[in-house]
Design goal:
Oligomer: single chain
CATH architecture of the largest domain: 2-Layer Sandwich
Number of helices: 9
CATH superfamily of the largest domain: Dihydrodipicolinate Reductase, domain 2
Order of helices and strands: EHEEHEHEHEHEHEHEEEEEEEEEHHE
Number of domains: 2
Strand order of the largest sheet: 17-16-15-14-8-13-12-9-18
CATH class of the largest domain: Alpha Beta
CATH topology of the largest domain: Dihydrodipicolinate Reductase, domain 2
Length: 383
């Protein structure tokens, strides 16, 4: 077995997502399993080079995980010809500039979303990367969740017949920060810093809907800032200028209607923090992060509306659990493996910077729809 090393500059790994999901549960996990078997007698060995602005934080992570190379100088790591891939999980406002530098340096690109703060910026990144001939990918982790994998299995198997509608509920209560620490960083609630739940979640809903049910053709949304004041990491109050809840209706190709509520101001009364209910002519299903339950037309009960008597049926008990039928790895790691195979073997790949731009397009149109109070068409993007 031949071992091939691929050096990856990882920027933004001191943040929660960059550290937990990308560094620890993806790259370090790949190293712990001995690398990525490419199936041709070669093992790909990922070697991270940690990049960050806070020297003490980056050094501490490197020492904790036994990582030899780290730096606070992005220019030097991009100038290093041995570094093949640049990964970015910084705050959104810092990402576009860093990605441009990495593309100019000839690095393959893998990054979190949104890829930029505007659609124009996201499209420019896609054009630059395509012109430069570098491979590029955007994280689309939700599609790798076990619950959604099982849901897509039902769609591909024709379980639903004709899909009629999709209903999504996502969110939880994020503490304001005064009497209990907030679970999300304060910049999430400042529009001037790239915050807002529309910008954060609509890019996710775009690829989830697109990959499982079809392209989004129209959007009508209402964004709201329900909690106007919050407290930052230093305990100081600040004005929340970004939306913390959004209520969207999306028309998909083929006539499917999707309704998705996204909120950081909702208390959870669901089995999981995100759930999607899909209804079709032949059956329905409810999928969360890990589970998926289904009800076929042949076993659909016959509810009768009668407000004068107590409910005696266990509606949840009338659904059947969809089996795993396979093992599921961490979704972020699974996508890292596919992108690394794309870089090493040129295997097919479609979750690129143009796909990332589609997500930003939906977010921009969602905010515009909310501001203008009307439904908007979603044009198809192309380079």
């Amino acid at each position: 077995m031949t071992r091939r090393t691929v050096r990856i500059a990882m920027n933004g790994i001191t943040g929660r997502m960059g550290y937990r999901q990308h560094l620890v549960r993806s790259i370090m996990s790949l190293r712990e399993q001995g690398g990525l078997d490419l199936g041709d007698g070669t093992t790909l060995w990922p070697e991270p080079v940690l990049v960050g602005r806070r020297e003490h934080a980056v050094r501490a992570l490197a020492e904790r995980h036994g990582i030899e190379h780290w730096t606070t100088d992005l220019h030097s790591v991009l100038a290093d010809p041995s570094v093949e891939i640049y990964f970015d999980a910084q705050v959104t406002a810092a990402r576009e500039s860093a990605l441009k530098q990495a593309i100019a340096a000839g690095k393959h690109i893998y990054c979190e979303k949104p890829t930029a703060t505007t659609l124009d910026g996201a499209m420019e990144l896609a054009r630059l990367a395509t012109t430069a001939g570098v491979k590029h990918g955007v994280v689309q982790d939700k599609i790798f969740l076990p619950g959604l994998i099982k849901l897509k299995r039902l769609v591909d198997g024709g379980f639903f017949g004709r899909v009629l509608s999709v209903r999504g509920e996502f969110g939880y209560w994020v503490f304001e920060g005064d009497w209990q620490p907030a679970q999300r960083p304060s910049w999430n609630y400042r529009a001037q810093d790239g915050g807002g739940i529309v910008l954060d979640m609509f890019p996710h809903w775009e690829y989830v809907l697109h990959e499982i049910f079809g392209r989004v053709r129209t959007v009508q949304a209402l964004a709201a800032t329900h909690v106007p004041q919050r407290w930052d990491e230093q305990g100081k109050p600040y004005d929340a200028t970004a939306d913390d809840a959004a209520y969207g209706i999306f028309e998909l190709e083929g006539g499917v209607v999707a309704q998705i509520n996204s909120s950081w101001t909702v208390r959870v009364n669901r089995d999981e923090l995100v759930e999607f209910q899909v209804d079709g002519t032949h059956g329905s299903a409810v999928a969360g992060l890990r589970t998926c339950r289904a009800q076929h037309r042949s076993v659909t009960p016959r509810p009768v509306w009668n407000p004068d008597v107590p409910v005696t049926e266990s509606f949840r008990g009338q659904w059947q659990e969809v089996p795993d039928n396979t093992g599921f790895d961490n979704g972020f790691k699974a996508q890292w493996e596919l992108f690394l195979r794309h870089v090493a073997l040129d295997e097919p790949w479609h979750r690129d910077l143009l796909a990332g731009a589609r997500g930003l397009q939906l977010a921009e149109l969602g905010l515009r729809s909310s501001a203008e109070g009307r439904r908007l068409d979603v044009p198809e993007l192309s380079l």
